[in-house]
Every structure is written in C-alpha cells, then in structure tokens.
Amino acid sequence: MLYSQKVLDHFHNPHNHGEISSPSASAQVGNPVCGDIIKFDLEIGQRPKDDGSNESYIKDVKFQTMGCAAAISVSSVMTDMVIGQSLEQASQVSFEDIVKELDGLPPIKIHCAQLARECLLKAIEHYEESQ
Length: 131
Ligand code: FES
Fold this sequence. Notes:
By secondary structure, the protein is an alpha+beta fold. It has one domain: Alpha-Beta Complex (Sufe protein. Chain: A). Helices cover 42% and strands 24% of the residues. It contains 5 helices and 3 strands; from the N terminus they run H-E-E-E-H-H-H-H. It has a 3-stranded antiparallel beta sheet. The longest helix has 21 residues, at 110-130. The protein starts with a helix and ends with a helix. 32% of the residues are buried. Residues 31, 34, 36, 67-68, 70-71, 109, 111-112, 115 line the site of FE2/S2 (inorganic) cluster (FES).
C-alpha cells in the first residue's frame, strides 16, 4: 500500500495528539469492521463576529486514535484543519477535504477519513446539545 509523504509525516509526527483535561465536548467513534477507534476532545471558545454577535469556535482539539497509520494521519491533519474555525466552518469539512489535504489516501483507507469526520461532527453535536 502506497501512502503519500504527508500521510507518513503525520503518522510519524502526529499533531495535537493527547487529551484536553476539561474538554467542552468529546466524542469517540469506532469502525466495527476494522476495529479502529478515534476520540476527539474539543475546547470551544467564543469570539465576536463583524456583525457584533458572538460565534463559537474551536480553540483547541486533541485526538487519541487506536488504529491504522491512515486513521492516525487523518486524525492529526483534521485537528490542524479545524483549529481556529467556527463550529459552522468545521462542520463543513468533508472527508474529501481531508483526503485532499493528505495528498490522497489508498481507496481501502478512505473510510478512515470518513471516521474522523464522523467523530468531529459528533463532538460538535455533543457540545451543541450541552448548551
Ligand atoms: Fe479502518 Fe483505518 S483501517 S479506520
């Protein structure tokens, strides 16, 4: 299986790996077929928008992933992509965006990117439910 250099870089040197001690929200998802598990902790902040209202944004995110090299790489690159984004922007990151950011994934590993996206959406949903 051929991985891009970016996938290998994130696998060997994952960004934002670990836990947030008092997260605003968390979520964990698993794929029952391959057994991989991804967990995201979110720290949500508030900031003013141009129109004077406030928006929630991702101040910090950490991941813990038990799984394949691709699952670790997609988790790592996704945290880089969404830090600083509003919840609305982060919700719109697609699995295709993640795959593109990694310069591609082998077809058999596309579901790893779908799993990371599902996990982030679930964490955002948990945050919104708690408000
Ligand atoms: Fe299933 Fe990577 S092989 S998430």
